[in-house]
Amino acid sequence: MKAINEIKDFSAEFKQNWLQYLVLFTGISVLNQFVFIPFFRYITTFVLQKGAIPFVSLSNLEIILTKHPFVALALLIELAALLFVIYSQFALLILVIKNQFDVKESLSEYGQCLKHFRLGSLLLLAIYFLLIVPFANIVFRTPLLAKLKIPQFIVDYMTRDSILLTILVVFYVVIFIFALHFLFTLPIMVLDKTTTREAMKKSASLMKKSWRKVLGFFITLGIIAILAMVINSVLAYLLQLLWDIFPKELALILATINLSLFQVISELLLIWTSAISLLFLIIIKITTKEEKLPNASHNKAIVTPIMIIWIFAIIVNGVENVFYLTGIDDHAPVTISHRGVNDKNGVQNTIEALKKTAKFKPDYVEIDVHETKDNQFIIIHDENLKKLTGVDKEPKDLTVKQLTQLTAKEDGHRGKVVSLDQYIKAAKKLKQKLLIEIKTTQHDSKNFVANFNKKYGQIILRNKYQVQSLDYTAVKKMQQLNSKIPVLYIQPYNLTYPHSAADGYSMEYSTLTSDFIWQAHLQNHVVYAWTVNNTAEMKKMMYEHVDGVITDDVAKLNTTIEDFEGRKSYAERLLNYMTAFPILD
């Protein structure tokens, strides 16, 4: 009850100064979207391009550090700059709200903060920002922090095993506890003009006294925010059901206004939630020093530009909404069965599963190819055979004849391990196109890709198959050997703008953005999203114009595409939008 009363009090303060809050949060959002995010992406792309490095991952981290020290140094400097920008944004938000929109006083205090800022604080800040991610959507939604997350494919992998799932749950619990423990670190750094280390100690001390109050407040605020979002969604949908009774032209106008209004209200709710959260943190902190917030300062000079930005954004969204509601931008993605299965209907990468999956008519079936001991090609995903066959060997340890004698077991099904020749023969009978992923290891022969192209290049072209690989060297080699074959470069996360020798990209969906897709399309490159098994995410990928969706459930994807692109009422299209971009997404 006390938390509700506090939220009411903060809401009254927000209502009194709503225009200032709108200017503050919109200004930072505009800077992020049009200045900071493009800047850091372009810098990362430029640095990696100059170093001839296609991507950064654990697999090539040692190579970057040992053979490209200047690239490593440049990336570290960029990371430090990014952390400083995030710190500055939070600091200015806290100071402007604390000083009640007195910009001059806030900038003066920010200058004092910088005097106490040390380069050594960047490491602790990095840890701090990682810790507060669980609170980020409530306290302050920024795309700069949104990138700090575990890619969904790792989470999906860990949830398939009880031991790994337990580790994941414990990990999140520990992270949550630490996040709560150090939640006040940044406010204390800013308000007390102190170092990160000292602020973390003070935060821990403050949270011991008030953790119940803080937790209760944020839980209550979260519930209220979700309820408000639900009410906004339900009212918009019910209102559209009424508007759809009118003639089509009028119904479209009303639907466009309705969807635009829904988007504006949703954004205002998010700004309200962020403002209330920061007010609460500031009040908790300054109460310990018996301080009070000053009277609000009204700087009207910046209000007009911000309102123009909002009007411009609403008009642009309105045009996009018309395209969406009328189906002008409908874009059915290519459907791709991940490892040749549909909803666990067989063992991955086996002909038994292929025959069942082909009945759902996917555009492509994605399979994984490893090199064998006798330099042939076998269809299997893992670098070790034990998980599926019980044999503790790698594909490179056995000949193709030995491998095809093994039986794989998965999800209550059995299937023979097959060669690429056998799989292609079965696929041709079913008239099923393939997306072949080249899986490379350190044990492969030097001519792996050349041998693959020599044996299958013409078959791939003739049957209109496609090739992809996580190994950028293999991608470039395939392009050099046979430029007519469509070759995609697989990326497990999105850090840069698209720039490679590939014909397209296969991107892990949870870090894929519409900006990346747009940039790739400007270069006439396709973008596939993997591995998308959730209806809402499938719709989101379609709304953002992805070219293909790789999924474990082709039947669900087919139904989702039909539902998303069907010539349905505006109310149903509005509901589709809400599903694609769910509450607090």
TrEMBL record:
Residues 333-561 form the GP-PDE domain. It comes from the Bacteria. It holds the Pfam family GPDPase_memb. One of its GO terms (molecular function) is phosphoric diester hydrolase activity. The keyword Transmembrane applies. It comes from Lactobacillus kitasatonis DSM 16761 = JCM 1039. The keyword Transmembrane applies. Keywords: Membrane, Transmembrane, Transmembrane helix. The chain crosses the membrane at residues 21-40, 70-96, 117-140, 163-191, 214-239, 251-281, 301-319. InterPro entries: GlyceroP-diester-Pdiesterase_M (IPR018476), GP_PDE_dom (IPR030395), PLC-like_Pdiesterase_TIM-brl (IPR017946). GO terms for biological process: lipid metabolic process. PROSITE patterns: GP_PDE (PS51704). This is Glycerophosphodiester phosphodiesterase. SUPFAM superfamilies: PLC-like phosphodiesterases (SSF51695).
